[in-house]
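#onboarding

Welcome to the new folks! Below is a worked example of what a typical request in this channel looks like: someone posts a single protein sequence, and someone else replies with the predicted structure as tokens. Don't worry about understanding the tokens yet, we'll cover that in week two.

Example request:
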Amino acid sequence: MEIGKLSNEKLQKIILNKIEAKRDEVILKPTIGEDCGALDFGEEYCVISTDPITGTENKIGVLAVNVALNDIAASGAVPIGIMVTMLIPPNATESDIDNIMDQLSKTASQANIDIIGGHTEITDAVNRFVICVTAVGKTMNNNIVKTSGAKPGDDLVLTKYAGLEGTSIIAYDNEQQLISQFGLDIVKQAQDLIKEISVIKEGMICAEFGVNAMHDVTEGGVLGAIWEMCHASNIGAQINKECIPILKETKLICDYYDIDPLKLISSGSMLISTKNGNELVKKIKQEGINAAIIGTVTENKTIYLKTDCESIIVSQPKTDELYKVNK
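Example response:
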């Protein structure tokens, strides 16, 4: 099987079709495109999400915390805490574990959340560190923003830049090769993008603004996130490729490895569906975060990516471009 997330077709057939939510407290059930579950505890909704980090070992603690918290933020909820499972290969040292734990603790503190438990194990089932983080949050005013809430006529807004996380990972994993090609400054700028992978701030802005749907951009990149939102919402979209913001260092690295930045893992970017994209972009930019309207939602269930010369139909995401570099 291909490395990466299970395809959506197989996910539905093998996994989701076998899950039946029976309890009334479960108000957000597993489905393609929805990254969180939600429970009704009466006065508040509890939002939960879980994610592993498997594509890299560099800055794995930073990535693990942010990726899990981003799912919570994309639901419009306030993150509260995380539980961490750390699977450690037998050849790891105490120093390796200490370094990752420092990353986890520092990143949690910066996000104002607690590490509330977890599990730590040395096992020969892995040949490098695997960290899985389960994040817990609570909603404001019992309101959950779903991936499936996009409506025809909405503007599609993207925050920050396409390919942020993937650019940083590639720059860390292939540091010397890229320095020889582009110089230290470009590689350092690319690595520093890891500092931009939280979407908590824009998630809270959007929750207060009142948007129809949010989805943080992870595996499959911007186009994968668009497909997942459209599939979950049973709608389509018209996307203007030229409006999708991409940084210079991302373009250089993606061109060098012949990969598509729009299909590259991109934690740090949030995809948002809203009735008033111009006003939302203005509010997000006032907080120092880049944002742009990249397209519109349509009743037609097909997703078109418009370029200067043609319109390309966007299909469901396959293996992330990251794995083409690090395979």
